[in-house]
Specification:
single chain; 17 strands; alpha+beta; three-stranded antiparallel β-sheet; 14-stranded antiparallel β-sheet
Length: 282
């Protein structure tokens, strides 16, 4: 019996050693893989997906099974920190491809995931989740016009969850719970008498369903102080989305003429209708 027990122990030791050697070889191959050969393909695929030029200066391995993109720029705008991409394996059990990503900054981060169906499976949504923690919004400057990028600054925290068919984001389902601090928010509508809003604190809570963005809460303090709620009926062409919003605000000196019937020194009620491209403020 001791002899059999000793043989069994020796067999398990050899098995464990074999597994350990295989793992070490896999990790060594993973770490030593010449990832620079993927640089051109990653840049081309990302540029096509975002419809903007994407550049990467370096690619490295990131344990356990990810890659780290360094020196990343989008639309000519350099992104702070680095971006880590890694596969998600659990979605494979449901017939979906999954990718996790993480953008690390010196004092902030953006984490998230994307899953999509593979094969011929129509009407299956793309699902994504984003979670920001004190994120420098300068990371988004490459996705907007140069004029808008100049006005954009601040810190973002919160979470976004979305599910939509590719190319049909405006008809998707999702939720938003965000906080924006100490920055500047540009306004897309040139018809408004100001091109941006200085923000001390902004809380945004909304849900998306069947093409309608239901804004439950916008509480703002800064160059403007007030609140806003209502609906935005989204269109494929975002600029044509219809606004149906109401709120109240305390206007700073010199901006009283923005509203038809402002309340001096107090909260003025207002409504916002029209479209994103041509809003009508009353």
């Amino acid at each position: 019996m001791p002899r059999l027990r000793g043989q069994a122990g020796s067999g398990w030791a050899r098995f464990a050693l074999t597994v350990w050697v295989v793992i070490c070889l896999v990790l060594f191959s993973f770490m030593r893989f010449p990832y620079e050969v993927l640089k051109g393909r990653i840049e081309a695929s990302a540029s096509q997906s975002l419809n903007r030029p994407v550049r990467v200066t370096g690619i490295k391995a990131s344990l356990p099974l990810g890659i780290r993109l360094e020196g990343l720029s989008v639309g000519g705008q350099s992104l702070p920190g680095s971006l880590i991409l890694a596969p998600r394996f659990m979605p494979l059990l449901r017939g979906r491809l999954g990718l996790a990503f993480k953008s690390l900054q010196p004092d902030g981060s953006l984490r998230g995931f994307v899953t999509a169906p593979f094969g011929n499976r129509p009407n299956q949504p793309l699902v994504m989740g984003l979670e920001a923690d004190n994120l420098d919004v300068g990371i988004f400057k490459g996705f907007v016009s140069p004029e808008t990028a100049e006005l954009l600054s601040g810190r973002l925290s919160g979470r976004v969850d979305l599910a939509f068919e590719p190319g049909e984001l405006y008809r998707g389902e999702g939720s938003f719970r965000l906080n924006f601090k100490n920055g500047n928010l540009p306004l897309a509508a040139s018809e408004l008498p100001f091109d941006s809003i200085g923000v001390k604190n902004l809380d945004f809570v909304a849900s998306l369903s069947r093409g309608t963005l239901e804004i439950e809460q916008i509480d703002l303090s800064g160059s403007l102080t007030g609140s806003l709620s209502g609906k935005v009926r989204l269109r494929r062409e975002l600029a044509r989305s219809r606004l149906s919003l109401e709120g109240e605000a305390i206007l700073p000196p010199g901006m009283e003429n923005v509203l038809e019937n402002p309340v001096a020194g107090g909260k003025s009620h207002f409504s916002l209708s029209g479209t994103l491209a041509k809003p009508n403020l009353k």
